[in-house]
Amino acid sequence: MPHNNNKWGIVFCPKSGALCPHSKWEKVEKCLKEKGIEYDFVQSESSGSVDRLVRMLISNGYKTLVIVGGDSALNDAVNCLMQFPKEVRDDIALGVVPNGLMNDFAHFWDIDDSDVAACVDIIARRRVRRIDLGRIRYTSQRGDKCHRHFLNCLSIGLVASVIRQRRRASGSFGWRKLAFIPSSLLMIFQRLEYNMRLRIDTETIDQKVMTVCIGNAQGYGFTPNAVPYNGMLDVSVVHHPEVTQLIEGFYLLYSGKILNHRSVHPYRTREVYVEKAERALVGIDGRVMNTPVGPFTVGVEQEVINFIIP
Questions:
Q1: Alpha-carbon distance 119 to 264, whole Å?
Q2: With CB atoms counted within 10 Å of each terminal CB, which end of the chain scores lower, N or C?
């Protein structure tokens, strides 16, 4: 295997729908050259290419992998990493220069997506923390037994619908704030609810639920106390609120106090068993996944990835 211990292996993921998709990379490239950092760079052509490019960089011996992208690109990278043996993963550190629509996992660590120089400095210092990953085990529509990991959260129901709506809107408008307008309208007026049966520790929930968020980190504000280094998942089960409660919920969500809402029931656990979630979409780190067939389990794997933090 070639050795590139000092060079960074960088995967650049252009922001979907952006007016100038390469402007972020131009700033990163300029900063790297000014700081004299050695690197090799590849660009993803599509959401499905990140896995292939990360695999290529690992196979060529890079020990510092940098994703210039958002939550979904990071998700692809960690899922690729998790396919390698532990002894390979232990020598690799993953860093991020945020370039996505939301960048929730980077924001958890207070990584500023507008300050490229600060992001590069963080990676250059290479302060590494071992972090947890969430994991869903499920059956695909073809009947295959599958699993996938997540950094930020897994959502079932309305939040996953909002993720899908947000991606469609951002592709049309190309601007983050405009993308939230139709998403917010969906939350206010559609007010979907789903028949679910969940088992969380010794408690069984069998009723109509608006959304469930299972957070390894802050989960778009629905699991504000979750941290990816305690071996636990935070779970918020949101029942159907009245209209006045829904308005209150928006305020609490954006102020980081959603757990105070009377329709939100929080849990902390190592595993969630979802026996039934009729018609509900499932979202994982900002992307809607192919809906699992039948029951599925969401758990946590403790301290399995080296992540570069401030």
A1: 35
A2: N
